[in-house]
Amino acid sequence: MPDIRLLVPDEWFILRDTRLTALSESPHAFLSTYERERAYGEGEWRAEFARGEWNAGFLEGRPASLLGVTRDPDTPADARYLEYLWVAPDCRRRHVALDMIAGVLDRLRARGVRTAFLWVLDGNEVAMRVYRRAGFVSTNHRQPLAARPGRTEERLYLNLGLSPEAAHPTAPRPALS
User: Fold this and answer.
1) Which residues, 6+ apart, have CB-to-CB distance to 55 below 8 Å?
2) How far is the C-alpha of 54 from the C-alpha of 47, rounded, in Å?
């Protein structure tokens, strides 16, 4: 299993390299593109740390997963968004995504965050299954994507004051690793 840790701003290059790997390996899963983010300089990558926290999973010294936690100015103080979830192909189907999500959610709960939100692109059934296993449920809110005409994304949420089972009793319990 990868060793999951919170990146610090001076590790902006790890965020950059991992994010670019994710965009090149799984372009269908993200709104942005490799070409767009490859053009970012150090300043843009460091600015991402002002926007949120970046969790990277390391396996044998190399980044193998990524998960961001952000809060926009109009988001309530006790709510956060998860974004940029990616797991390297050789680490998939090993509960890495669920372990990352669980660890991040535990840290958010300990800091008093009550609600986690995320957006899932339509058609990304693998991500939808992972998020549902983690306890996320639909808000019944979809929005069209200007960046991808004809496509939408759905907003999910999880009440962090409840266990995943209590928040959504029909969700399968994540397997322990």
Assistant:
1) 4, 5, 6, 7, 66, 67, 68, 69, 100, 103, 104
2) 12
pLDDT computed for residue 150 by the predictor: 87
- Predicted local confidence at residue 174, as pLDDT: 40
* DSSP one-letter code for 75: S
Whether the per-residue pLDDT at 163 is higher than 70: the answer is: no
- 127-130 long-range contacts, CB within 8 A, separation 24+: 127/29, 127/85, 130/85, 130/97, 130/98, 130/101
The predicted-structure confidence for 88-118, as pLDDT tens digits, reads as follows 999 898 889 999 999 999 999 999 999 999 9
130/127 Cα distance (integer angstroms): 5
Q: What is the pLDDT, as a whole number, of residue 162?
A: 55
DSSP 15-60: HHHHHHHHHHH-GGG-SS-HHHHHT--HHHHHHHHHHEEEEEEEET
122 Cβ partners below 8 Å, 6+ apart?
Answer: 142, 151, 152, 153, 154
